[in-house]
Each structure stands twice: as structure tokens, then as C-alpha cells.
Amino acid sequence: MSGNFKRLVVLTVFCLLVQLNCLRAEVGGEEKNPHLWEPKTTSVSVFKNGLGFFLREGEVALRDGWCVACEVPPAAFGTLAIFSEKQGEAVDVVGSGPGEVVAFDGKDAPEDKTYKETRLKAYLNLRLALSYKHNGKDESASGKLISVSSDFAILEGEQNRFAVPTADIKELRLLDLPVRIHVAGEGAKSPSKAKLGMAYLRKGITWIPEYTLELLDETSAQLTLRGTLVNEAEDLIHCDVNFVVGVPHFIHTDYLTPIAAQQVIRTIGTALVPREIQTQMANTAALLLSPQGGGSEIVRPVTGNDNRLREILGELPQIENASASDFTVYTKKDLTLRRGERAIITLFVKKVGYSHIYRWAMPEDTKHFIVAHNDTDTAWTTGACLTLSGGQPLSEDLLKYTPKGGKCEIPVTTAVNIANSQSESETDRKLNAHSPARDFYLDLVSLRGELTLKNFEKRPTEIIITAFIPGKPISASDGGTLSVDTTKLKLEERCGTIR
């Protein structure tokens, strides 16, 4: 009898191992759970102030209208939206916490073995913690659920496998997937599958524009815009990237959305939301507080990888003009750039017109500028510009924001071929013309100045002259315009300009 019993035990263990291997082969080591929503980033709009507006989407199977997700990204307050892309369906509940818990106690869920088996099969290939009774004692096991039958639920841990009797399971808790989403369909019936989208604004991504202006002949040039994309946010895989000129008004970018992963709605901190909304949320959260209590967690403002971006960008100037009302977007299709990577993308190459202009702002030397004419179909954002002629560099400076139909000036150098000189002489003096106080007199002195220019260039040049005058300018020749400094109207401080 003892020998037969040993053979029976060995045979039983062998059959169980064979069954486990077969079950694992059926499941497949890398097969994913159909109820796990893993949206892929399809597009992102990148702004030059370190913010990006992301769009994700993906299909998922639903269990009674429910699915689970790994995380909610660190979205800025007021910008997160999770939605169904099918007409007639709507995402009506998004929950976040330590993970879904199901108690088979006859209240939360039925206690019968058949229901437990059906419910457990919805969590195949997900990490669970199961609580069960064994020899009258409360036991627990955790790991990846690799198979479920009417007899056993098999969990695979890091080093061991656990066979938990299905009938003895009292509670299950979903690990690592804190987000639950419910989709409501038309009528009382919930859809069996859905295509869901997610939109949000977050920190950690930016782009820096750089131009190359190559002079082709006396009137035309080729302008190339390249954008350096710095990604410290998340992986972009076959994603459409929109490089946006201009920055919209985002007021709550320093605050994190309360539903973000590992942030419980009841843990209201002073830095979580704006003060105007704190009272409203705190009143709601008071109804959700656990009677067992515990200290509230202080949630810090969202930072994402903003500090990492500052470290990468160093002392680069903030060169975007937020007052630009018309946003221009340059799109790069099907781009792959993982977190921590940088890439230089050519956004456009256009032929533009240009001209020359010279400025003499006394007492400085005459300066030479190239004037680029924006006769393209898009605005030009502010960025560094390298100007070339015949393969040789002429200058590197800032090309400032230029709308369609506008012009921008790029400094080249001191105009050594434009000679200039100036002379000044007294033409009249009235003694004691003004007495602001007793025994204090001022003379009225009239001066005449003359500016002389000689052009040694091969072509005619347009020169704008700005002469700063002490006192009040009276007249100017050759169509010069006069102006006075309205902030200095006292007699002894007056000054003006002739242009």
C-alpha cells in the first residue's frame, strides 16, 4: 500500500506539473490582458516654454464596461481628458487608487466558485494578490496570474509558483494598475470593447528653433528652419510632432491633476490645486475621508522633468514672444524619439527675398543689416540665425518673430565702406534768457550740427540716421523728422531726436 501510495503521489505531482506547463503554453508568456488599456502616444504639440500637449489612443476590451490602466501621466491641473472616440459612448468614471479590490463575501461579489473563476479570468496575465483560507488560517499569495480553472488559480512569482484553490479565495487585489475606467454606452447595456483617447498637458518637452540664411544672389536667399527637440517627458514612437510657434495661455501649469497616479483625491495638499478651488475640493473630499483617518499627504506642485530641461538648456534665452496671437504649427510625421533623447529636425526650406539697410545711431559707428522679407505662407518664430554668403559666414544673431508679410533685420557688421563725420557749432546765444530763481540765470544757446556721409559701396545704400540732440530740436534738413523725449520735459533736462 505504501509503495502504491508513493507512486500515486508522484504521478499526481507529475500530472500537475504537466498541466501547469500546458496551461502556460496555452496562455503564452508574453500575451497581454485584453482589459488592460495601454494607449500609444499618437501626437504631441510642443511649445517653447517646456510644455507639451499629448494625445494618446488605444483599443481595449471591457468587462461590464470596465478596464484598467497602468497610470495617469503627470498632467497639469485642468488639462486631463479621457474620452471614447465612438459616438454614443462616454467615459463616465475614472478612478485612481492603490488598485482594484474585489471581496467575495456575498456583498461586493458572489461567493460561489463559478463566479470566482469567471472573474479571475478577466485578470489573466496581470499581477494579483489573493487572500484565501488554508487549514483554517488566513493566507495570501501574489504574482502574475498565468492560469485559472475551477480548481486552482496559478500565480507566478519571481522565484515560485502558487496554486491557490479557487473555492477558498476570499479577496483579490490588483497590483500595479491603479487606474480604473468605465465606459457607458447607449441605453443600459455596456459596450464590450472601446477605443479610448487621452489628452493632457505636461512638462518635460521643448524645442529650440535655429535658422540658416544663405544668400543666393543680390536679391534672393534660402532660409532653412531646424528645430532641436528635447524630450525629457516620455517615449515618442511613430508619433506626429507639432512644433508650435507661440505659447497659449496656461495658468495652472504648476499644479498637478488630482487623479494622477498614486495621488488619492482625499489627500488635498496646499500645493495641489489653486487656492480658489481648494475649498470646493476640500468640502467634497471631507465626505470621502476614511473614518480610520490618518495624516493627509502633502502633494507638491508638478515638476515633471522641468529641472532636467533647465540643466540641458543652460542659459539659453527665453526667446518666444507670448503676445503672438496667430499660432503657426510645423508638423513632423512619424517621428520616434525616446525619453532622454534629442534630435534636430528640418522644418522648412524656403526661398525668400532680402535687401540691405544701414543704420547710423550716433555716436556709434554705422551698422550694416540684412533685411529678410517674409513672403512665405507662415510666420517665423524667434531663433538663432546663421547668415552665409558663398559658403562663408556673415553673422550669427537672433532672427526675431516675423509675421507673414513682415520684415526682420539681421545685424551683419560695422559698415566700413560708409564713411561718416559730424560737426557742431554755436549759431546764437541769448544771455540771461531765463531766470528760474533769484540771482540764477540761464543762457539760450542755439547749435547747428552737420552730418556728412560718403558711400564707398558698389551699390546705392539706404541709410537710417538717428541723431540724439541735447535740448529741443528745432529743424532738420533733407526730410528729417523731429521728436522730443516726453519723459524729460524740464528745461534743463530736455532732449530729442532727429531721424
Characteristics of this structure?
single chain, 499 residues, mainly beta, 10-stranded mixed sheet, 6-stranded mixed sheet, 47% strand
- Percent of residues in helices comes to 10-25%
> Looking at the chains present, what oligomeric state does this protein adopt?
single chain
How many distinct beta strands? 28
Alpha-carbon distance between the two ends: 118 Å
For the largest beta-sheet, the strand count, sense and barrel status come to: 10 strands, mixed
Query: Which stretches of 5+ consecutive residues score pLDDT under 50?
Result: 4-29, 261-273, 276-303, 315-325
Structural class: mainly beta
Task: Give me the Rg, rounded.
Answer: 37 Å
